[in-house]
Design brief:
250 residues, mainly beta, 5-stranded antiparallel sheet, 4-stranded antiparallel sheet, 6% helix
């Protein structure tokens, strides 16, 4: 027997929430699933300073950007979608890494949950726009916001009654703008060797190895800041204390 569309939807919905599908939705809702199934966590897009995101939404220099009030983001319609009554169902901020509600305090006060408005182009939406809510109103206008992609979709296939073809959507919320990626940390485990080309971008490598040697052979391409304490490097081929940079460009 063919798998029904509702079963595909149940699988995708549960996966989106980070749990495994083990039963029919009529027998076990997403809230009732107990086996974790998190989405893949890529090292190159890890929010390295996520521990510095406050539990109540607030701007933090270099880490959290507040796009609220007059700084709310005016989105653009995705014209590759099929318009509904002259209004496109999907809207793009053009910005990624919006901070989701999971960063709120334990009681989920929702300070990071985005607020959505519509109105004319070029306005302060909080002062002059109309706020719309995720559940919609009168059975229409339900929306879903993708915090990673920065897109809003009227997921129920209906549009808020007040929107027209000249309306635009605004998103008010907070974005992570801190460092991305992972550090290369070498523990005190004896001599360490990195061979070939080593590229370090926007990260601070460090070592706690005080008894062995760290050897880098080949090219060392540096596009961010590299901090090495208590060592003077005066040429391209240097052995200084426990770190050796051999025949590369530093």
């Amino acid at each position: 027997m063919a798998i029904s569309t509702s079963q595909y939807i149940d699988l995708l919905y549960k996966k989106l929430l980070g749990v495994d599908k083990t039963d029919l939705p009529t027998n076990k809702s997403a809230a009732g699933e107990t086996i974790p199934s998190p989405l893949m966590l890529r090292g190159d897009i890890v929010w390295k300073q996520s521990d510095q995101i406050p539990s109540t939404a607030a701007a933090v220099t270099g880490i959290v950007q507040a796009n609220t009030g007059s700084l709310s983001i005016q989105t653009t319609a995705d014209n590759t979608t099929t318009a509904i009554g002259g209004v496109y169902p999907t809207w793009k901020t053009g910005l990624t890494n919006w901070i989701p509600p999971e960063f709120d305090s334990v009681n989920l006060s929702n300070t990071y949950r985005v607020q959505v408005y519509y109105g004319a182009s070029g306005i302060n939406p909080v002062a002059n726009g109309t706020q719309i809510y995720a559940d919609g109103s009168g059975g229409t206008g339900e929306w879903y916001f993708d915090y990673k992609a920065g897109t809003l979709n009227f997921i129920g296939g209906t549009i808020p009654s007040g929107m027209t073809g000249s309306s635009v959507i605004y998103i008010s919320g907070y974005r992570y703008i801190g460092q991305i990626g992972t550090n290369y940390l070498i523990a005190n485990t004896g001599p360490q060797t990195l061979s070939g080309n080593v590229a370090i971008s926007n990260t601070t490598p460090s070592t706690s190895n005080t008894t062995g040697a760290l050897t880098i052979s080949g090219g060392l391409g540096v596009t961010g800041n590299v901090y090495i304490d208590s060592i003077n490097i005066t040429s391209n081929n240097v052995t200084a204390n426990a770190i050796t940079v051999d025949a590369g460009t530093f």
